[in-house]
């Protein structure tokens, strides 16, 4: 076997492998003889087919099979000989000749990672607390989750819910598949395109209105993006939101056994504080990893970026399947995911190298502490804790998150960390 390697890019390699004809011929006769014993050919009894007949009929097919087998076995031997570590599957091109055959395997290799520069990272750490005003906002959100709607005989106002029939057209062509009927619109929620909800304010049941609004430039449907469309709307009813009182029944529905408003506020604040602290940790981890990513500068194989893009697309594919939509209708170009995919793959390499170079091991005490903290969000924490530790496979993701935290600690110990005071919503909505 002769092997030569050409570097086609920073990570791209083209490996040419040449094998002698003797390797092919050594397998041809035994395989043809096996076929002669088993083949059913008209005019011959089974097992009595002359080898010359079998050779004439099957030699090309048998040779292709042998070549395929030899490529598979020699490819890994050639990689080992050349000390190459491919990322993903190769593209194989077979080159036949009279003295044997050659093939070209084109692939990318994994990058060599160096941690140069991670000793001088600059990281910003967010600092925030849960204020009483934040608790008030959260309680309002919880009340809205249990709000009811009451029909009113007046013109629609901001925050009302309006039920409408409507149709839309562009240059005289209807694009709403006729008329959409009994469609609820909460005014101010921003669920419709900009300008649509504002045109409903001041209308009451029985009113009709024609108006024109422009679709956003980045609207998923290219035919409508940036275009001014005409809408015809008929109001069926107007409803006002009725928020429930914060009474014993309400607070007990959210798990506050005491049934008191003070106890409820304390529970809400405790949950918000736990969520805030977890988010602060996650943001700090991402800030440290992003700083390392920008400093190290890892070249990433395109094949791994493609794989990661597929992972990022999965939720959209699931949503399209659930709603019986064609994924192409969502207008999701590769460029939309490429930067994030590249960053995720590169961070995987960086984290892996930090773990390897420093021989980091998962701190099981931290794993348990994390599971205990997660369990506090449930009605029976002890049961959740037992559930995790009953099956080691359930701890896999927790261990991975814990190891990432340990890597973050390692990075932060070497970084220049500055703090930034922010409010609760800034942290949680990042």
Task: Supply database-style keywords.
six-stranded antiparallel beta sheet, alpha+beta, 11 helices, four-stranded antiparallel beta sheet, Chitinase A, domain 3, 12 strands, Alpha-Beta Plaits, Trigger factor, domain 2, 430 residues
Largest sheet: 6 strands, antiparallel
Unreliable stretches, pLDDT < 50, 5 or more residues?
A: none
CATH class of the largest domain: Mainly Alpha
Please estimate the helix content: 40-55%
The dominant shape is extended
Q: How many beta-strand runs? A: 12
**SSE string, helices as H and strands as E:** EEHHEEEHEEEEEEHHHHHHHEH
Number of domains: 3
Strand-residue fraction? 15-25%
Structural class: alpha+beta
Mean pLDDT: 91
Q: What Rg, in angstroms, do the CA atoms define?
A: 33 Å
Second-tier CATH architecture of the largest domain: Orthogonal Bundle
CATH topology of the largest domain: Trigger factor, domain 2
């Amino acid at each position: 076997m002769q092997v030569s390697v050409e570097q086609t890019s920073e990570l791209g390699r083209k490996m040419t492998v040449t094998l002698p004809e003797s390797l092919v011929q050594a397998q041809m006769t035994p395989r043809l003889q096996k076929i002669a014993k088993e083949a059913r050919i008209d005019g011959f009894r089974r097992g009595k087919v002359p080898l010359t007949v079998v050779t004439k009929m099957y030699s090309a097919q048998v040779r292709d099979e042998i070549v395929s087998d030899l490529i598979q076995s020699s490819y890994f031997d050639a990689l080992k000989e050349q000390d190459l570590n491919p990322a993903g599957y190769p593209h194989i091109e077979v080159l036949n000749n009279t003295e044997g055959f050659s093939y070209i395997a084109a692939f990318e290799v994994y990058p060599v990672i160096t941690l140069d520069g991670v000793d001088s990272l600059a990281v910003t750490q967010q600092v925030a607390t849960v204020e009483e005003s934040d608790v008030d906002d959260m309680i309002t959100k919880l009340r809205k989750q249990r709000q009811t709607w009451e029909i009113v005989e007046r013109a629609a106002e901001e925050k009302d819910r309006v039920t409408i029939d409507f149709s839309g057209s562009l240059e005289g062509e209807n694009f709403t598949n006729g008329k959409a009927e009994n469609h609820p619109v909460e005014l101010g929620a921003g669920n419709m395109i900009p300008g649509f909800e504002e045109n409903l304010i001041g209308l009451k049941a029985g009113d009709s209105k024609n108006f024109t609004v422009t679709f956003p430039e980045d609207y998923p449907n290219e035919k409508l993006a940036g275009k001014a469309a005409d809408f015809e709307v008929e109001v069926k009813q107007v409803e006002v939101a009725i928020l429930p009182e914060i009474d014993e029944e309400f607070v007990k529905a959210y798990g506050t056994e005491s049934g008191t408003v003070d106890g409820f506020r304390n529970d809400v604040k405790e949950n918000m504080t736990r969520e805030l602290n977890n988010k602060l940790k996650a943001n700090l981890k991402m800030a440290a990893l992003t700083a390392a990513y920008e400093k190290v500068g890892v070249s990433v194989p395109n094949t791994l970026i493609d794989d990661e893009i597929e992972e990022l697309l999965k939720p959209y594919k699931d949503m399209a399947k659930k709603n019986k939509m064609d994924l192409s209708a969502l207008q999701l170009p590769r460029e939309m995911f490429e930067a994030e995919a590249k960053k995720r793959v590169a961070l995987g390499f960086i984290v892996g190298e930090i773990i390897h170079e420093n021989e980091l091991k998962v701190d099981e005490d931290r794993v348990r502490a994390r599971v205990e903290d997660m369990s506090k969000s449930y009605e029976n924490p002890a049961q959740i804790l037992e559930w995790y530790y009953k099956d080691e496979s359930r701890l896999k993701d927790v261990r991975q998150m814990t190891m990432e935290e340990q890597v973050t600690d390692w990075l932060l110990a070497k970084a220049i960390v500055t703090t930034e005071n922010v409010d609760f919503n800034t942290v949680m909505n990042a």
